[in-house]
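seq as requested:
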Amino acid sequence: MAARRIPPSSCDTFVALPPATVGERVIFGKNSDRPCDEVQEVVYFPAASYEPGTKLECTYIEIDQVDQTFPVVLSRPAWMWGAEMGANDCGVCIGNEAVWGREEANDEEALLGMDLVRLGLERADTAEKALDVIVDLLEKYGQGGNCMEDESIFTYHNSFLIADRKEAWILETSGKYWGAEKIADGVRNISNQFSITTKIDREHPDMRDYARSKCWWDGKKEFNFAAVYFYLNTARMEASGSRYCEGRTLLNKHKGNITARTMMEILRDKESGINMEGSFLTTGSMVSVLPKDAGLPCVHYFTGTPDPERSVFKPFVFVQGIGQLKETCSPTFGPDDPVKKRPRFQSKPDRRHALYKKHELAAAIMETTKERGEGIRKKLMTLETQRIEEMEKLAQSSISDWTLVVHIFSDTVQDELKAYS
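struct tokens:
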């Protein structure tokens, strides 16, 4: 029996840069919209050094490892090596989106877009260098493979929003071909469609020739990446187009006054479809605050649970002494993991982490018991507000005592678990 193909559906990523933000800071945000039964974990990996010739096993394939990697914090589907979104200790943040176009997405196993997110974060100390990492790996290893923990086939190309303290880049890919747009100020968002048009700041050297060889572009008209590489019939992606426009509207509505809280509220917006419900839903969310002043700490907020409207954005700060984030770290199954066996995905283990289990119970209460559910939600929002206020004070000066924040994420998780009880 042929494997069932899943129709296009996925996420939204946002960035706001001065003067659109309050203060001299870049604000990054992303919702990860994934299958409703998929667990998303928040995990930390410290810097590491490797011997020459070391190999790295990603989700499906093995690649060459680099000599040194940066510390990273990731929000990722628990069965993957890569991540939907994350940050490193240099202040680089990356989120990816599924995109489809005229070029058929590859079922053959290669690097997933999520693998490229993690690799960019582990190997680059600026947004543009992360772009370089991703496109170099794309050229060498390609992108492809099933993006769902299921026998159903769910494949796509990838777009990326990459930000640091100074700027952001949009990178959109079709197979090995790509175009990139630099964002120096204002607001920008990406969804599940190509959004780069005629402002192309960097590109694959053969991108235009390939399009001309496929008769997608006549070589005379101004080159428009989205128009050339996207579907002839865009009706297939009508929902993502609507979300893209809604996201842009929400960003522009708050332009000049965007804070971490503003970005969280955009990610919580259900009317726009950005906070997604249904068979695909928002399984994890992230907001990052990146001060332009390199002497000030970046703060990264993660939910680690579905539906940001019923979740707490918990702060994480890169300092010395951070250990693994146990309550948001899913069980591991080693070589017995169904994703590592062939044929893949013959079974689906329980990947729920401690926070996910408690949140699952609390979400059911919030859904069915109005008074008790409102009480829980009020506690969650009070906790989140307290943490944001603490982080705002922290963001005004350099960290003199790292012990004050080394456990801030895990401590917030513990307080969240208490709020559920």
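DSSP finds nine helices and 18 strands in the chain.
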